[in-house]
Design a protein that fits this description.
heterodimer, A: 328 residues, Uridine Diphospho-n-acetylenolpyruvylglucosamine Reductase, domain 2, Enolase-like, domain 1, 5-stranded antiparallel β-sheet, 4-stranded antiparallel β-sheet, 13 helices, 12 strands, B: alpha+beta, Ubiquitin-like (UB roll), DNA polymerase, domain 1, 3 domains, 5 strands, globular
């Protein structure tokens, strides 16, 4: 690993100041992604600011009925938290579908939001990659693009966001709380991650000098707790990144869908919410024909590349199966 | 000198060009290295302080298997490298060194993690348990006994990580079924494929618990 300087930060203001002072400083939380990237030479930090001592670990109900999850709560702590299991079981399912128990014990919620893509061209520093080295081109576009995007890609980047947690978060209308030199602000989860466009080096809309302090889940998403499923399709039965994943949450009135939440992972540069399919499902009977039609709507605008054409079949099938399991 | 064909000549030009560039670059580097002016500028820009900072070692105190250690480490040293290289506890293995194989699994404050992705400095004040800390003197931990009894290994390289993970798994209560054990042991890869015997060992330890 390249050498770097180290600062331990015990207050948010101090951590933010470090980012303001040093353009090449990076925040370190669980480190499961960042330390790997530093070892690979993909990220070359001048300084790591260790934010683990910050008091951002609590998971609690707040005044407006939301569940506020501190950015430093680990993935395991969130997945196993009684309030998450009770009110937002989709989030537990999604988190436990990702990584391994050891990694989930280290990785934090804030870090999971900041997770970089697992595109091989991004990780291999001998390859062109506009995300790692802007202007060098996209190795995946004409390369081995089996894991890559179906939606919202650009000619500069066809990488996908690798997170499972993010797929559940976007489906549940989570809100990201951040703090920067100018104070605090909130970002709706669907606007946190961005599409690559002309700037694939930017994964999200967080400013470089901002710190994620929490993610909150709204009280309105509790209505979906009775009918949820997270289906992850991967190359082996556990501990692999998604080829495609589908998160489904239904608010049911008998056999009728009162309202639906649907999102996909492994298909875009951001967790991919399926608003049009959700609108179609509203008020419909929960049956195979409905689910198939919703999946067709969800796939409109999908564009495959040489090696990921199989996803055009896999993705709608995953949506149908996730809806079937959720509604059962 | 014999006359060259066009092709050769352009090749030669290319070679000469790159040689020339190389020489230019290397002499530039030498100039930077030797110039007193550069040294002065570095001092003015506090580069020397920065370099010193990079090499600076950070004091870390941690408890490993009940023994307290106070060491100084560079920030880039992982917990795994500290255990193996500095404390000479080589039971924790370096497999992939990227958090993908689980051979480096240890417990930090009772929780299993990949020590290859954890910086030693972030473990200041924590209690670490490694495979060396499981046995009670000559008496092996029940999980170690069960791995031996059920042949839960072949080459043995992943075994310390498997056992550390398995001990945590039983404590976490993720042993309700064969499927659950497999799922929650998925962070430990066994290249020899001893998985079914590893599951048997874990099931035995779980069943022997009251």
């Amino acid at each position: 690993m390249n050498p770097f300087q180290y600062t331990r930060s015990s207050a948010a203001a101090g951590a933010i100041q470090s980012l303001v002072r040093e353009p090449q400083a990076h925040l370190l939380a669980g480190g499961t992604n960042l330390i790997d990237l530093v070892k690979m030479g993909v990220v070359v930090p001048e300084r790591l600011v260790d934010i683990n001592p910050l008091p951002l670990k609590s998971v609690e109900k707040v005044a407006n009925g939301s569940l506020r999850i501190g950015a430093l709560a680990t993935n395991s702590e969130v997945a196993d938290h009684p309030l998450v299991l009770q009110d937002y079981p989709l989030l537990s399912l999604a988190i436990n579908a990702g990584a391994s128990p050891q990694l989930r014990n280290m990785a934090t919620v804030g870090g999971n939001l900041m997770q970089r893509t697992r595109c091989n061209y991004f990780f291999d520093t001998t390859m062109p990659c506009n995300k790692r080295a802007p202007g060098t081109g996209c190795g995946a576009l004409e390369g081995y693009n089996r894991m890559h995007a179906l939606f919202g890609a650009s000619d500069h980047c066809i990488a996908v966001n690798p997170s499972d947690m993010n797929v559940a978060m976007v489906a549940l209308d989570a809100v990201v709380h951040v703090k920067g030199p100018k104070g605090e602000r909130t970002i709706p989860f669907g606007e946190f991650h961005r599409l690559p466009g002309d700037h694939p080096e930017r994964d999200n809309t967080l400013q470089r000098t901002e710190l994620i302090t929490a993610v909150s889940l709204p009280a309105s998403a509790v209505a979906f707790k009775g009918h949820v499923h997270y289906l992850k399709v991967r190359d082996r039965s556990s501990y692999a990144f998604a080829l495609v994943s589908a998160a489904a949450a239904l608010d049911m009135d008998g056999t009728t869908i009162r309202q639906a939440r649907l999102a996909m992972g492994g298909v875009a540069h951001k967790p991919w919410r399926l608003h049009a399919a959700e609108a179609f499902l509203k008020g419909k009977p929960a049956n195979a024909a409905t689910f198939r039609q919703a999946a067709e709507i969800a796939m409109q605008g999908a564009k495959a590349y040489q090696y990921n054409k199989f996803k055009l079949t896999l993705a709608p099938n995953a949506i149908v199966q996730a809806l079937q399991t959720a509604s059962a | 000198m014999s006359k060259k064909t066009g092709g050769e000549s352009s090749n030669d030009e290319l070679l000469t060009g790159s040689r020339r560039d190389f020489l230019k670059q290397s002499s530039l580097l030498s100039a930077i290295a030797l110039s007193p002016g550069t040294i002065v500028r570095a001092a003015e820009n506090q580069w020397d302080e920065k370099f010193a900072d990079v090499a600076e070692k950070i004091p870390v105190t941690l408890e490993v298997n009940g023994v307290s250690y106070s060491v100084k480490v560079e920030p880039r040293v992982t917990l795994l490298d500290l255990l193996r290289e500095e404390l000479h506890l080589t039971g924790s293995k370096k497999g992939c060194d990227r958090g993908q194989c689980g051979a480096c699994t240890v417990h930090v404050n009772g929780v299993r993690i990949n020590s290859c992705l954890s910086l030693a400095v972030t473990n200041d004040g924590k209690k670490i348990t490694t495979i060396e800390g499981l046995a009670n003197g000559d008496q092996l931990h029940p999980m170690q006994e069960a791995f031996i009894k059920h042949d839960g290994f072949q080459c043995g390289y992943c075994t310390s990580g498997q056992i550390m993970s398995a001990v945590a798994l039983v404590k976490e209560g993720r042993t309700q079924s064969r499927e659950q054990i497999s799922e929650f042991m998925s962070g430990n890869i066994c290249r020899c494929g001893a998985y079914s015997n590893i599951v048997k060992a874990i099931q035995e330890v779980k069943n022997n618990q009251v």
